[in-house]
Amino acid sequence: MEALCKQSHPSQPSFLNGIDIQGKRLGRASANLHSDSCKIPLRARRISKKVYFHSFHRFVTATLDPRQHHLHQQRTSNELFSKRWIEAQPLEKPGEMHGGQVRPGRPDRIAPAEHILFQGFNWESPHNYPWYSVVQSQVKDIMAAGITDVWLPPPSQSVDVNGYLPSQLYNLNESKYGTKAQLEGLIDALHMSGICCIADIVINHRSGYSQDSSGHWNIFEGGTKDERLNWGPWAVVGNDAYDSGGKGHGDTGESYGAAPDLDHTNKRVQDELTDWMNWLKADIGFDGWRFDFVKGYAPKFTKLYCERTLPNFAVGELWTSLTYDNGQPSYDQNGHRQVLCDWIDGTSGLSTAFDFTTKGILQSAVCGEFWRLKDAQGKPPGLAGWYPDKAVTFIDNHDTGSTQRHWNFPDDKVLLGYVYILTHPGTPCVFYDHFFSWGLQQQIGELIHLRKRAGVNASSNIRIDAAESDIYVANIDEKIIVKLGPRFDMGSLLPDSVNWKLALSGVDFAVWESTKAKEPATKENKNGI
């Protein structure tokens, strides 16, 4: 969900100054265990609340990596992990799902720097029902491209068709993207192809199910037969911009005017959202989270939810305005990316963030201003220049592009954008439309496979050799050289034919790959041995 900006600029739409309510988006609790742990059928593992919790505790401490183990011990010792085992839907027979088929286990855990995301929907996806089945039919193409994670839309029943005004969080059968069974079928197909699934988590706000005695829409229904997520005005911030009659504490972030903002300082809100997210993992099969509109609540709460659910991957959407000079983006966007860094720090690094700074700079740079791609310190100018391992780079999403086109990348330069993000540090995210509708599937796939072949990842080193109006040249890890821009004569920057070979080329770009054999990495101990 796009952020609200404090100012309007000719190149950035005025809608960012407020919310157009009509046009706007009116656990496996095992927490990312290795796929071997998941060969036990999901339903068969749900025995009893007490037995499950203690079995889970013993199992998880034996299988988690050191960081996860530490967080798990901390969580259990502080009673952060809810001992209530979710049973939101009637159980199928143990070990059965979809016509008696046992659901597959999860893919192996992906190294933090190796993720390559794919946004598996656009703004019009709800109108192509059932969307889950559409994507399931495309899993082979997604897998062939080398994608590691697919970001799926908000899964719950919602007031709006796109899912960004959720109401009954446990109700997955009234989503405009498909049914609960169709969602599980898609997740199973992705898991069988070695691909993880990211859920779009919308918890800044929530749409009321009914009105209170004063006419405020602040009575919430969770979508189960019990009281879980059945909330009242106490769950809404007391200073809500929606005029929802909230009786909770003050908002810890920016207000969202289209639905009541939730009070994340409330323990019951925290506990029941945690239970719901762990249910999405345990029963539905999600592996990680994309947190929507994170500017609406303090980053410490994103940290809390990550600690309690231990996603394989997490990313937050924090969209604020760039700084502008005479209607054009300023060269120095340090203030903009500092906001992203501060938010990441507020999560203790447990979540990455979408690199809106890089997007804004890159879509101006490809229009004859390649000098923008090098900051005053000689680094990439976006979040990826400061926190590359926490930056999720992207070209467009369902808000900026698709049919909304609120802040879209220049159409004829989209491939140049992918050449940049798929060869550079940061975690790249590919947009559904560009891959399946724009005829770029082959080129994007080739770039991803080149990235993997060269061993480039989110934390790779970069040296920028040229950044002028008509040319940009960068060397990544001494394994890839990238040239962008219309200038044909590279002069001394042209890679030699002995150590480099041309891997990919097209209009205004070329990418070379090192011919040197990969040498095994060696490690030194503190004594230099």
From TrEMBL:
Keyword Cytoplasm (UniProt): no
Gene Ontology molecular function: alpha-amylase activity; calcium ion binding
Domain of life: Eukaryota
CDD domains reported for this sequence: AmyAc_arch_bac_plant_AmyA (cd11314)
Alphabetical list of SMART domains matching this protein: Aamy (SM00642), Alpha-amyl_C2 (SM00810)
EC code(s) of this entry: 3.2.1.1
Keyword terms, alphabetized: Carbohydrate metabolism, Glycosidase, Hydrolase
Signal peptide segment: none
Enzyme class: hydrolase
Cofactor or coenzyme needed: Ca(2+)
Chain ranges of the Alpha-amylase C-terminal beta-sheet domain: 452-514
Reactions the enzyme catalyzes: Endohydrolysis of (1->4)-alpha-D-glucosidic linkages in polysaccharides containing three or more (1->4)-alpha-linked D-glucose units
Any one GO BP annotation for this protein: carbohydrate metabolic process
Ranges where the Glycosyl hydrolase family 13 catalytic domain occurs: 115-451
Family in the record: Belongs to the glycosyl hydrolase 13 family.
Protein name (Swiss-Prot/TrEMBL): Alpha-amylase
